[in-house]
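> run fold Transcriptional regulator
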Amino acid sequence: MTTHTVDTTQEIAAFLRTRRERLDPRDFGLPSRRQSRRTPGLRREEVAELAGVSIDYIVRLEQARGLRPSVGVVEALAQALRLAPDERAYLFDLTRQRRPEADGPATAPAPQLAHLVADLSPLPAMLMNHRFDILAWNREMTRLLQVDFDTLPAPRRNAMWLCLMHPRIREFYLDREQVVRDGVAHLRSAWAAHPEDRALGGLIAEFTAHDEDFARLWAARDVKVNGRGHKAMRHPDVGEIAVHFEVLMPLQDTDQRLMVCRAADDRSRTALDRL
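> ok
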């Protein structure tokens, strides 16, 4: 069996050509063609006009002549060819360009994921976006963190804000320094990946201005994506609890992150059961 590597130039050419040929000119208000025409779909010149590029540029792309389209051109081609979200992502991957957010950062939970968070009981679970905004949670997470998320204003329903600013949560973690350090390193990664996100920039500015620890750690420029880890907490009702957490990214909603916690030891399992 032969394993083929991707020749991106050839694949871009073939992909653009097949996407163009599947389109119906009538969907664009263009006159239908004679049946004798050899190539179905839109003409190259029609795609060029829709995308705002030259015909020669489309020809060179479809002939695999070594062009690397810019982000703006890739987005224009995706719109002109009416690519589905997965096809758009594929074209961005082929051209080695960073994908702009198609719909902006998630501010509401995907309904299926919100149901999943509830179904994960009795494991504490919550759904966040890249800013650490908390989008959905179950009652076990509420009891673990001692926070009634429903009563918080939406801008304060943020895991990093709670850790830095909430008077009770500030003293909740046994190793607060490490928790904040990991959170700052994650936010710096998110900040680089989402430079257009003004809400994230506003959060970072607020944290830097009001928390000395955050400002110090932000200036260190550490970068880390926290997909799993361990946290120890001092709960006022059941004493110390240690949990392992796992953060999962759904394929269909890549700006949403599902965080699930489980007891790290027997003592913590008993404590969680009491909660």
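Strands lie at 125-129, 134-137, 228-235, 239-248, 256-263.
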